[in-house]
Every structure is written in C-alpha cells, then in structure tokens.
C-alpha cells in the first residue's frame, strides 16, 4: 500500500479480541423404564465439558495481522447428558495461533495471563465449563428418584488484549535518519526500506547477524525515537515495547551532525526516553555506535563527545563506524556477541510479576460470592460470579431443582444479607433475569 511516497507495511502489534469458552452440557433427568427391570431408578447422564480456548505459539507468524478481521473466538459447547446414564461428549479445545513474543492480558483488569515466547508454547486463556450433573448423581436413600439435574457451567468469556513484543537479542536505537536501517542492511540479509527522510522505518525490521568467528544473533532495527517518545510523541512509543525484549542495545548516533543536531544531546535525549519508558532499559548493556565517520566534522564531533562523556563520568564503549563504507562493522558486531554471552535473558512474566502485583486482582468485586444493590424502583438486585453461576446451572423446569437453588442461596447467607439491608416481606428480588418475592 503506497501513501505519500511511503511503503506502509502491514504490521499489527496490539489488538483486543473476545474469547468465549464452551459451556458445559446440561445434565439430564431420566428414569429406567425397561420392562424386566423393577425399581429402575434415575438414569440421567452428565453433560460433557465445554471446550477451552487455547493460545499456541506458531513461529511462522510475525505479526498479529490475523486478528485484524477476526476478533471473536468461540469454542464449542459440551454435549448434553443422555438417558441410560450416558454422559455427553466433551467439546474439543479451540486452538488460536499467535506469533512468538505475544503477551496476553485481561483487557478489563490489565492482569497478565501469559507470556508466549517459544514455538508450541500454550496457554489456556478461557476455561470451558464443566458438564451439569444428571439426576443419577443426586440419588440418595432419602430421595431414590430425584428430579434434579444441573445445567452446564458457563464457559469463561473475556476481553483479551494481545501485545506483540518482537523477539530480538539486540536492538538498534537512536534518532531518525542516523543510519540504523543502513547498518542493519549491510550486516545482515535484511532489506529494510531506506530513504532520505525521517521515519522511513515504520515497523521493526529483523536481521540475522553472523560474526567472523561463527557466532550469531538477531538484530532489530526500531523506528526512530524522538524527544517525548515515552509520552506518545512520534512513532517511537508504538515500538518502545519491542526494546523490552532485547538484551543488548546499540545506540546509533550520527556523529557528523549533518541534521543540525548535537551528538551529545542526542545521546542524553534517547537514554532519557528509554529511562522514562522503563527504568530497566538503562540497565541493559549499551554500546555507542558513532556512525557516518566518513563525513566531514565527524572526527571533531567525536572528540567533543568523548570529552563530554569523561567529564560526566559516563562509562561508555564507543565504536567508530561508517555503515555506508562498512568501516568498523566487524568490531562492533563481535563486541556485541561478547556482551550477549553474559547478558541476562529478558524477564518472563513469572519472574517480573511479584506476589504483590498478583494480589491486586485477587479480591475484586467480581470475585465475591455475591453483592446486593437496590434499583431506583425498589427492586433488590443480587449479583456476583458464584451466585450467578449457580443460577445459570439450575434447571428451573423441575420443582426439586428450584428448591435446591433456594437452599443454596440461604446457605450462602443471601436471605440474611437481604434482611440486614432492609428487605421486607413481599419485596421484589432480581438475580440476572429471574425475579422472585422475598419471604420472611
């Protein structure tokens, strides 16, 4: 797609999708009625389990483009139970392929659910509901012929946010037009778009680097950063997240100053943006790559740069290169490979998420057994995950099931809670779309 002279690559690295696991099948109320079987008794089977929604890593994918037009994923429901004690068939899981480097979050709470990085790695993002029990399960000496069966448990339904963080060992950072794309193109087989204007690079480009001594690593060219990128200015904020994955940073600086910028200011500005986005990025090993050393004024600018670094106490390794003439490239790539041998791997979800962060999502209102509010018309409203699930799993066609549901509500303390809130005999109470009268 061409627009104003720019080739806009189809790259999608953040998207929201809706996932719905399958409901469990309903249990059945049935009785044996064979001619020669006296006192046949209950024979209703259980429903089958609903299908899970599972994300699985496919190393052949590189973007989230597959989710651009398909944002709803539904697993199948379990089969209903049958007579003669036969259980319903469980539904198959729905597998959804995602590229390596995908972070899965709950869109509502922001809680991270999975960090998928390796080919074949799987994560259950929505759990299928269990099958409802048939009346054969409720038989007892006191009630040998129960007319009770459960509906299937509803499957999980969630809004999921997918965020792709490119998997690369080394990231190229720097202002636009400092030569990052040119550098990537001459040290690897990658062919990024190169142009004599800012923001030629609109998407991260990856290249495989092979050093003279046989070591290899993946190098990523990120779109240029500008001042304010960490607050959303320019294109950089969209791709700062990809730098989180890298283990070593190559800070490319245009030492010629042909763009009218000061190399020293460029160095401090870019590092400030990295620090404001994520303080951990400043802890990554970083090499300064002084590019365009074949240009006039580069030597003088580099001398001033070194003096400023010494004066400020900054300990930096500086490599002089010219991406255009390929001068000094072998040295910087070899030193980068050295750093990778000791640099830690990027932190996975389990390592970077402490116990305190997980607790934040543990006691939200949605996870309480029930909550009681009152509408303007005076109707008492009962809500909550557990009580709503009990309601959905109750088969209201049978009086015994209704009576069991009433006992369950009483056992949860809902009657007492309504009374404490001020509910009077005859008040209307609503649970989901089911209304009943409060009875003292």
TrEMBL record:
Residues in Obg domain copies: 9-167
EC number(s) recorded for this UniProt protein: 3.6.5.-
Gene (name only): obg
UniProt cross-references to SUPFAM superfamilies, sorted A to Z: Obg GTP-binding protein C-terminal domain, Obg GTP-binding protein N-terminal domain, P-loop containing nucleoside triphosphate hydrolases
PANTHER family, per the entry: DEVELOPMENTALLY REGULATED GTP-BINDING PROTEIN-RELATED, MITOCHONDRIAL RIBOSOME-ASSOCIATED GTPASE 2
Named cofactor requirement(s): Mg(2+)
Domain OCT: residue ranges: 362-440
Start and end residues of each OBG-type G domain: 168-341
InterPro entries linked: G_OBG, GTP-bd, GTP-bd_Obg/CgtA, GTP-bd_prot_GTP1/OBG_C_sf, GTP1-OBG_CS, GTP1_OBG_dom, GTP1_OBG_dom_sf, OBG_GTPase
GO cellular component: cytoplasm
Name of the protein this chain belongs to: GTPase Obg
HAMAP family: GTPase_Obg (MF_01454)
Primary localization class, coarse: cytoplasm
Domain of life: Bacteria
Functional note: An essential GTPase which binds GTP, GDP and possibly (p)ppGpp with moderate affinity, with high nucleotide exchange rates and a fairly low GTP hydrolysis rate. Plays a role in control of the cell cycle, stress response, ribosome biogenesis and in those bacteria that undergo differentiation, in morphogenesis control.
Any matching Pfam family: GTP1_OBG
Key words, A-Z: Cytoplasm, GTP-binding, Hydrolase, Magnesium, Metal-binding, Nucleotide-binding
Residues that, per the record, bind Mg(2+): 181, 201
GO biological process, one term: ribosome biogenesis
């Amino acid at each position: 797609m061409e627009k104003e002279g720019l080739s806009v690559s189809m790259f999608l690295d953040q998207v929201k999708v809706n996932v719905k696991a399958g409901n469990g099948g309903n249990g059945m109320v049935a009785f044996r009625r064979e001619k020669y079987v006296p006192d046949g008794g209950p024979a209703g089977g259980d429903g089958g389990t609903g299908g899970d929604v599972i994300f699985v890593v496919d190393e052949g994918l590189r973007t989230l483009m597959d989710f651009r037009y398909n944002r709803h994923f539904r697993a199948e429901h379990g089969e209903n139970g049958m007579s003669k004690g036969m259980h319903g068939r469980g539904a198959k899981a729905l597998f959804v392929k995602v590229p390596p480097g995908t972070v899965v979050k709950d869109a509502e709470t922001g809680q991270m659910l999975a960090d998928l990085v390796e080919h074949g790695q799987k994560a259950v993002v929505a759990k299928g509901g269990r099958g409802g029990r048939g009346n054969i399960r409720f038989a007892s000496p006191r009630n040998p012929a129960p007319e009770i069966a459960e509906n299937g448990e509803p499957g999980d339904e969630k809004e999921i946010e997918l965020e792709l963080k490119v998997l690369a060992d080394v990231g190229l950072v720097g202002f636009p037009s400092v030569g990052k794309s040119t550098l990537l193109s001459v040290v690897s087989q990658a062919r990024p778009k190169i142009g004599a204007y800012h923001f030629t690079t609109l998407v991260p480009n990856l290249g495989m680097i092979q050093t003279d001594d046989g070591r290899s690593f993946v190098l990523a060219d990120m779109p240029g950063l500008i001042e304010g990128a960490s607050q959303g200015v320019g294109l950089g904020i969209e791709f700062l997240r990809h730098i989180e994955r890298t283990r070593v940073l190559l800070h490319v600086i245009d030492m010629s100053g042909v763009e009218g910028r000061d190399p020293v200011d460029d160095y401090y500005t870019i590092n400030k943006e990295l620090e404001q986005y994520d303080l951990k990025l400043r802890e990554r090993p970083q090499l300064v790559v002084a590019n365009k050393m074949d240009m006039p004024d580069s030597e003088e600018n580099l001398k001033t740069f070194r003096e400023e670094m010494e004066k400020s106490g900054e300990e930096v390794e500086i490599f002089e290169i010219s991406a255009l003439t390929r001068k000094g490239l072998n040295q910087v790539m070899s030193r980068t490979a050295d750093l990778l041998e000791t640099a830690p791997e990027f932190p996975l979800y389990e390592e970077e998420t402490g116990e305190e962060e997980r607790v934040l999502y543990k006691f939200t209102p949605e996870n309480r057994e029930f909550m009681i509010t009152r509408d303007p018309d005076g109707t008492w409203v009962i809500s909550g995950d557990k009580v709503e699930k009990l309601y959905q799993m109750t088969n209201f066609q049978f009086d015994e099931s209704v009576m069991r549901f009433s006992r369950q509500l009483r056992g949860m303390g809902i009657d007492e809670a309504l009374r404490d809130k001020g509910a009077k005999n005859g008040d209307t109470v609503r649970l989901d779309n089911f209304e009943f009268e409060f009875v003292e």
